[in-house]
Design brief:
heterodimer; A: 275 residues; alpha/beta; Rossmann fold; 6-stranded mixed β-sheet; globular; B: 276 residues; mainly alpha
Chain lengths: 275, 276
């Protein structure tokens, strides 16, 4: 159920940034970033283009190392891990890249099963898992197609299927709706809702589209009826969508909290962002 | 009225020109690149000797680099042999030793021209191909995606290309040598009237074991240089399609220059040990 009664989530957060700074040469990209993401929660990272959202996700996946501070994911301090250990660690997370980053030379099935092939899994098991994953994103018909034959939205969905193949507890989405039409964007957001509310996936989602944040914060996926419903309130209290927002501006966290707080904010920059 | 002295005293003294920051800027980039290249070479050699090795990718690259390069190797090798005979014939004729052309062609091809020509052709064809392929993968985040999926890009992308080049370049060099000898024979037979028996007998007997060692060692070293330079420039590509273009050009230029420079020093070293 996509609800979050008070005090339901306890224990260590799955994702924790502690005073993280990173730069390339003399260019500082992120400064003193600290936040936490609890299990089952989606944190939407909002910011203008070039504000460091992708860098933040890559730090969280150990694809980049911070200049200072600690990135702790599922209890692992990524800054202290060797690359060979990071490779193993990354098999437990999913990453959906902005431009999908599907391997051009492989067909959809091979793209989705890439991780399983690397682990030399049984061929029959691989096919079953690939079909399941593609069915989840409604792309089973593209099983033998190559990325060049797919539209942008289809590629994005295949990329989500690839990230989900091993059912990771954490998934990072880098601008998953960028450059897509509103209908396809909504399809992608619904997929993310389903993952959050049916599978309990914890995620970081970088975007510059406020609609994505509100879509995730104001709706929940109801697994029994398989319907997307608006958040509601009943005798048990308010049923929350497990989503919070983090706004990055000038290399730093500018705002952190619920979308309702963001809406009420009188801050001129946030108002401009909301306009 | 302000005097000249007050004016000069108020003006901040211009900074003393210093060579250090200029040198720092000029040298830092190339030294860092050299360091990164050395690390990549070391890493790929270690990973080429330890499991897991992607054998199917090695075979695929052997097909791309080896079989794919065969037509240009055959064509170029044949004409290089012919040109050698054409250009040296006059000199040998002056001394009435036309048949010695076969010795010159044979030694020249096996020791020097075979490895060198094959290496330059593979640099142009495959060094550029490797850089553009990997560069495209970098700028479209496919390499990051590979890392995010838990796969080491050096093992998956670099090692198969290095191993494949290491295996096929000596073979391509042998083909260049053989076809070059045929090209030389065609010119020697039809232009100078040297008999087949004399040409092939002299070609074979002229070669000592040191020549053959040179002809095998050189392509092995060139293979590592060409493949790692191609991979290095490809993996460093940035800035979209223009960046891929720059990486490809850099790979060919750096690869060709490296082959030429290494050829001189390696040739000297091998001559010292195996011929003199």
């Amino acid at each position: 159920m996509a609800t979050r009664p008070n005090n339901e989530i306890t224990g260590e957060p799955l994702i924790r940034f502690e005073n993280v700074s990173v730069g390339f040469g003399e260019n500082e990209v992120l400064r003193n970033i600290s936040f936490e993401v609890d299990a089952g929660e989606t944190k939407v990272v909002l910011g203008e283009s070039g504000s460091g959202k992708t860098v933040l996700l890559k730090l969280a996946a150990g694809l980049l190392r911070p200049s200072s501070g600690r990135v702790v994911i599922m209890g692992h301090n990524l800054g202290e891990m060797k690359e060979v250990d990071l490779l193993d660690f990354r098999r437990r997370i999913g990453f959906v890249f902005q431009e999908s980053a599907l391997f051009d030379s492989l067909d959809v099935a091979d793209n989705v099963s890439f991780r399983l092939r690397e682990e030399s899994r049984n061929v029959r098991e691989m096919e079953t898992r690939v079909r399941e994953s593609l069915r989840f994103v409604e792309m089973e018909h593209a099983y033998h197609k190559f990325p060049a034959e797919l539209s942008g939205g289809m590629r994005r969905r295949v990329s989500i299927a690839r990230a989900l193949i091993d059912q990771p507890p954490i998934v990072y989405y880098d601008s998953p709706t960028a450059g897509l039409d509103p209908v396809t964007s909504q399809t992608i957001i619904t997929l993310i809702l389903r993952l959050r509310d049916s599978n309990g996936v914890t995620s970081l989602l970088a975007t510059h589209r406020l609609q994505d944040a509100f879509g995730l914060a104001n709706f929940v996926f109801e697994p029994k009826s398989k319907r997307v419903l608006p958040v509601w309130e009943d005798g048990d209290g308010r049923h929350f969508a497990l989503t919070k927002v983090l706004v990055i501006r000038d290399c730093e966290i500018y705002f952190q909290g619920e979308t309702t707080e963001l809406l009420k904010s009188e801050d001129p920059y946030l108002r401009q962002f909301l306009a | 009225m302000r005097t000249m002295s007050t004016l000069t005293s108020n003006t901040p003294a211009p900074p003393k020109p210093s060579l250090l920051p200029l040198l720092n800027r000029a040298l830092k980039g190339p030294i860092q690149a050299l360091q990164e290249y050395s690390l990549l070479v070391g890493d790929s050699i270690v990973k080429a000797c330890t499991p897991p090795i992607y054998f199917s990718d090695v075979l695929e690259q052997m097909d791309v680099i080896g079989v794919g390069s065969l037509p240009i190797i055959v064509l170029t090798g044949f004409f290089i042999g012919g040109v050698m005979v054409l250009n040296t014939a006059a000199q040998f004729q002056q001394f009435g030793s036309t048949a010695l052309i076969a010795n010159a062609v044979s030694i020249g091809l096996v020791r020097e021209l075979g490895p060198f020509i094959a290496a330059l052709l593979v640099t142009g064809r495959n060094g550029s191909g490797i850089a553009s392929e990997l560069g495209s993968m970098v700028v479209t985040e496919q390499v990051d995606a590979m890392r995010a999926l838990g796969t080491d890009p050096v093992r998956k992308l670099v090692v198969p290309r290095v191993l494949a080049t290491f295996i096929v370049l000596p073979l391509l060099t042998a083909v260049t040598d053989l076809v070059g000898l045929f090209g030389g024979f065609a010119m020697a037979r039809f232009q100078l009237g040297i008999t087949a028996v004399e040409y092939w007998h002299r070609s074979v007997t002229a070669l000592a074991s040191g020549d053959l060692i040179q002809g095998i060692v050189k392509p092995l070293v060139f293979a590592i240089i060409i493949s790692t330079i191609g991979c290095f420039h490809g993996l460093r590509a940035h800035g979209g399609t223009q960046g891929v273009g720059r990486a490809t050009t850099s790979a060919v230029v750096a690869g060709s220059i490296a082959v030429i420079i290494v050829d001189l020093f390696l040739g000297k070293l091998l001559l010292y040990y195996f011929v003199s």
